Sequence to fold (539 residues):
Amino acid sequence: MLLLPTFAYLIVFIFYPLVETCLLAFSNPAGPLENFRRIITSGEFWKTLRNTLFITAIVVPLQLILGLALAMFVNLRFKGYLFILYIIAIPLALSDVSAALMSYSIFASTGFLNKFLMTLGWIERPLYFFGFRFQDRAFWVIVITEIWRATPLVFIILLAGLQAVNKEYLEAANVFGFSPWQKLWKVVLPILRPSILSALLIRTIFAFQVFGVVWILAGRDIPILAGEAYYWQTVVYNSNVSSAYGLIIAVVTILISWAYITFFKPKSFEEGAT
Amino acid sequence: MMKKLLIFIVCLFIVLWFCGPVLLIIIAALTPSSEYYDVTRLLPAKLTLEHLESLFVRLNGWKATLISIQTALLSILISFAIGLPAAYVLSRYVFKGKNLFRLTILLTRSFPVIIIGVPLVTLYLRIGIADSVLGVSLAHSSMILPFIIIISSSILGGISVEYEEAGMVFGLTRFRSFIRITLPLALPGFAAAAIYAFVLSWNEVFISAIINLTNRTLPAHILNTAMTSPDYFKFAAGTVMALPAMVFIFFTRKYLMSMWGISLK
Fold:
């Protein structure tokens, strides 16, 4: 049948690597859990997990709010809204590496921000954002970059959802004298629920795999899960530990997706029933 | 009037926020090195192509760019060859397990690609395609394939079956009817999907960096060399990498919604 090639491909390139990853992660002469023990007791691990969780926890909600605001703005359909839509879509097609380099051109010690502030005479010496001593600052630069880079994805998903909102619902809300705020909470957001769920899911999953931006801007100064997987594979040449990191990412991702779905789903079923 | 002004101001802010960094890195890539390190100069007095040139010639950027393009084209070819039949079936037939199949495809789309990188290295070593364009393309295809299937089936779904059936009435086989009638109608959509697939592969860095150590794609090459090269090379590289994105938005703008606006319902 025509589906066969797809199945074969998915088995060889998704299923097989998945199984192999598990095997690699659990194989170690010192016992099946040795790789994980090594990761967890290394001290770096908790920092790594914390960084990844922090980035996700800060970036994803902000992206959701900004993306929703942008989507509602563009959905006003003012003259030239399509042009604005395309402008917002630019980062969608940019890679994380080049987005990171863009933010580096702004925040580098001789970057545009420092030059700008110095020509204005507001600062006398350049501000440093990168390097081992300035991890906190680099962290926030990463957060800004991630927000800049990936908000458009949330925006597009929510805009597609908004276009499905029937105008009549809003008119009905007007008849009942709803305030704009009430319309947002009682009419628009409930209808957007599936779009919000998929935006959240996709963004969270990808936030857990954040790699390019962090690696370019901070290297291992700010360790993250995917970065450690890369480091162990290409620098230490230890596929087992690297696989174990990969598996940790997968497990956390699955747990979070599951949590989202159970959190969002029951209510939408109720609404479907009434 | 007030409302119009307000909309204009917000638009201006949006344009600055999203275009600003892109413009700045292009300027930075063209700034002569002496002026770049002079902190009192906000904008360069003259522009130069020398960084772009040395990125391509001295730092092997040319080779990496070529590898990136080859990888992307090969991935598109593989994904379409495998995905198109599946998309056709999804859009034309009702069969048992159709929803399950759709769900599997959607799930693989959000599957962490990081996991498949490491085992593939060992697999490739065994079958002798380690460190090759083909290897990375095959891995990228597994990331692109779900997108191609989903997008193509929605494009094909938008083209009425009746044209195809009319072709069959006039004596074409189903396959020829698809090639002669449906395919030309679907072509613009497929082109958009292909450009999108190109960008996906062009941008992917983790798998390419892990699988290929010498024949690196551009992002992977930059990832390796960026740490050690002077800032202006980084900006040149960032600019080169951003170019396909601009082309992408320009050519696929009509399809942006159908490609990204898919929600899991």
Notes: The radius of gyration of chain B is 23 Å. The domain at 70-217+246-260 of chain B is CATH 1.10.3720.10 (MetI-like fold). The mean pLDDT of chain B is 78. DSSP finds 13 helices and no strands in chain B.
